[in-house]
User: What shape does this take?
Amino acid sequence: MSESRNVSTINPFDMALEQLDEAAKLVNLDKGLHQVLAHPKRVLVVSIPIKMDNGEIQVFTGFRSQHNDARGPYKGGIRYHPQVTIDEVKALSMWMTWKCAIADIPYGGGKGGIICDPKRMSEGELERMTRRYAYGIADIIGPRTDIPAPDVYTGGKEMAWIMDTYSALKGNYGQPEIITGKPLQIGGSLGRAEATGRGLSFTVREAANRLKVNMHTATVAVQGFGNAGQYAAQLLEEQGAKVIAVSDSRGGVYNKNGIQVGALRKHKETKGSVIGFAESKSIGDSDVLETDCTILIPAALENQITRKNASKISAKIVAEAANGPTTTEADDILYKNKILVIPDVLANGGGVTVSYFEWLQNLRREYWSENQVNDKLDKNITRAFSDVYSTHEKYQVNMRKASTLLAVNRVVEAIKIRGLWP
Ligand code: GLU
Assistant: This one.
């Protein structure tokens, strides 16, 4: 991690509970049902002993939190990061419940994580850790119970190892529907890699329409240049916007005349970071947030926009590619300053939506074309955006409160119809 990125002490689960409390108040939620939603249904902690390359045994800790399954199987990614905590994973699993409800796909919310520093591990160590974690959670996941996916610092490679380990443990045949975000060769979906960024670009398009922002004169700043940040930047560039500032965990680059996203991606691929990109001036990772721009995309980690820097943000639209990048206090400041925040549970919902398409293809042993995937994604996200936008207008609350409120209503309806048993 760079020194410049905010490492906040705000507990993400407290933040998620605060958001739930606010939504509960707005919809007059029954106290008991509020309690149901405040607790994940199950949180599993596993210790993961593996042999490191130097022959020593190291024990990692991993989690899988299953928040709610009233609307369908638990669904959500697995992240590898030194700052993973049980509370972070619990918060992220609650946000997945809301995200799937807003996207209106038949899933509940789950999330997993391992406390580790994947950048300092060899390929062999990563594979052994991933397989041992898959073994540890194998009894609580399943194609119809809990379907994991990639998240921060995990991708197709890890998904393939998990699918293989799970399939071997459960009967030695390939079960692609156990996990999404897989490589194409083993049942991945066309369009899944770009899905989070693509979905985000659709939500920005919708927001720009509502706010009468012209994408051809709009400028974009992106904090975090991983999977979501890279595709979001590229797709907004395709909509006509000019990307002027980009950062990753090591630092940032700025050019007021525009940065070519394709060239920057190549640079990052070869150099491992955006820093040193030609014809740009170097800036700090957190400076990117305060860049004078039209559209700001936090695409890194939680708690980046806080009460300390929220009033310095000048963008018209903030579209959250990361999960939980804005604190509750910062949300209020941005709302007061008339900045439209497209919250994570809406803005980055394209990832899990295409995961759903991947899962459907796997269950039916079908393959859809990329156009089919992208068109369906567009329709789904556009509808989700308009549901949230009209809720935000109706209740006169920010888009995050509107999202949580909408999601809580949908989940509570499912809980009520199903009833409690035993
Ligand atoms: N990790 C992604 C998210 O936070 C994707 C989850 C999924 O595809 O299940 O939305």
Remarks:
- The pocket of glutamic acid is lined by residues 75-77, 99, 149, 151, 180-181, 323, 348, 351-352, 355 (CB under 6 Å).
- DSSP finds 13 helices and twelve strands in the chain.
